[in-house]
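Figure 3 (text version): structure tokens given as input.
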């Protein structure tokens, strides 16, 4: 089985996933402590009506799912969860937690 991404690219993507996970975990801790970090507004705008802690937990779950896929060198990493379309290396380097193609981004 060949690797979908070169090892150094996978390592960069994994690092970005872990960094995003730490940021989200810190935001969740702040929200649970009664704070409202300004950086949460962009996440909340994507899910109107959802509670901040729900949005953050869903985002953390998405990060963890992607991390497991990349760690397992699973072919599903970097593909749309709905249709299986390859999201492309450039897009995955930009947003390694992406799990949908543009056509299914709002599904």
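Below: residues designed for each position.
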């Amino acid at each position: 089985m060949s690797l979908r991404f070169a090892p150094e690219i996978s390592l960069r993507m994994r690092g970005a996933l872990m960094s995003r996970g730490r940021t989200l975990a810190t935001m969740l801790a702040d929200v649970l402590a009664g704070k409202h970090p300004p950086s949460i507004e962009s996440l909340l705008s994507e899910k109107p009506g959802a509670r901040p802690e729900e949005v953050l937990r869903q985002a953390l779950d998405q990060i963890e799912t992607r991390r497991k896929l990349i760690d397992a060198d699973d072919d599903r990493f970097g593909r749309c969860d709905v249709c299986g379309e390859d999201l492309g290396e450039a897009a995955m380097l930009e947003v390694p937690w992406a799990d949908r193609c543009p056509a299914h981004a709002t599904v």
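The longest helix spans residues 7-32.
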